[in-house]
Amino acid sequence: MSTLPVIDLSRPMHMIAAEIDAACTSSGFFYVRAHGVPTSLIKALEDAARDFFAFPEDVKLGIAMRHAGKAWRGYFPVGAELTSGKPDLKEGLYFGAESDIDRPLHGRNLFPDEAVPEMRSAVLSYMDAVAAVAQRVMRGVAVGLGRDAEYFATGWTADPTILFRIFHYPPQPPSYDGWGVGEHTDYGLLTLLLQDSSGGLQVRTADGWIDAPPIEGTFVCNIGDMLAQLSGGRYHSTPHRVRNTSGRDRYSYPFFFDPSFDAHVPPRPGTYGDYLTAKVARVFPELWRETS
260 near 159, Cβ under 8 Å? Predict the structure, then answer.
């Protein structure tokens, strides 16, 4: 079991808020259970992900991110994503809210409709379901900060920026001393992570690095840099990393719930969209050069 707290979202809001506030002022990481996302939907998503990543790379590259232009949606191969300038030992799929707006990180998702026709429905339904969980967690954050429960929903996240990833970490070779994902903090407000049974997620605390193992029926939540900023320094975004030493394939499903793209987050200049675009450009520098 993890030493991180597990928060039951079915309880009254004042209880949820107190526990979220305690977690955010200590580790910045916690689990949530009783979240209401159907297990059948989670299984459909996991089955579609495993089916997709089992295909040869030439099939997966049929929905490569370059085909989505500046929407930055679709598939990337192992080593194409950078963390702190170093390639990650993972491959993945990028998704977001479906949109016809012509600007960075917006657009239509790329789905492997011929190879895995079930993925489209599973991903879109999952994003809708987890967005509702994120709004409930953010209500707890707001109350914990002494605000009205709808403080974020009527302001910063009235039109949230939603980004969703599916990551596949191949078994790490014994001679490899790098990371599936190196040490980093998340950019935005809140991340909700579904992870499989392989483990590998580590969180840096005041007592050093600790494991955040999978707990059935939960999501791992952590706060990002923007929520730390909006809390006035009460909260701090926590570094974390992943190393897959399980000897088998690892799958994870991070869902990022962020401020509205046009929101101004003081004291930073510009919009959240400006900030986020610059951050993602550092993750995929070659793709940025091709699409900018």
Answer: yes
| Averaged pLDDT of the chain | 94
Q: Which of 151, 163, 172, 107 is nearest to 279 (CA)?
A: 163
Site of tokens 């997709």: 52
Tell whether omega for the bond before 254 is within 30 degrees of 0, i.e. cis: no
**Checking phi first, is residue 280 left (phi over 0); if not, alpha (psi -120 to 50) or beta?**
alpha
As a whole number of angstroms, the distance between CA 218 and CA 195 comes to: 9
What pLDDT is attached to residue 288? 76
DSSP-H helix ranges across 5-117: 13-26, 39-53, 57-60
Q: 6 and 31 in contact (C-beta within 8 Å)?
A: yes
For residue range 195-226, list pLDDT tens digits in order: 999 999 999 998 899 999 999 999 999 999 99
Nearest in space to 131 (alpha carbons), one of 165, 97, 90, 81:
97
In the chain, where does DSSP find H-type helix? 13-26, 39-53, 57-60, 118-144, 225-230, 272-283, 285-291
- pTM, entire model: 0.95
How far apart are the C-alpha atoms of 162 and 115, rounded to whole Å?
Answer: 25
The length of the chain, given as a count of residues: 292
Q: Is it the case that residue 175 has pLDDT exceeding 90?
A: no
Residue 1 has pLDDT above 60, yes or no: no
Helices (H) and strands (E) in the chain, counts: 7, 14
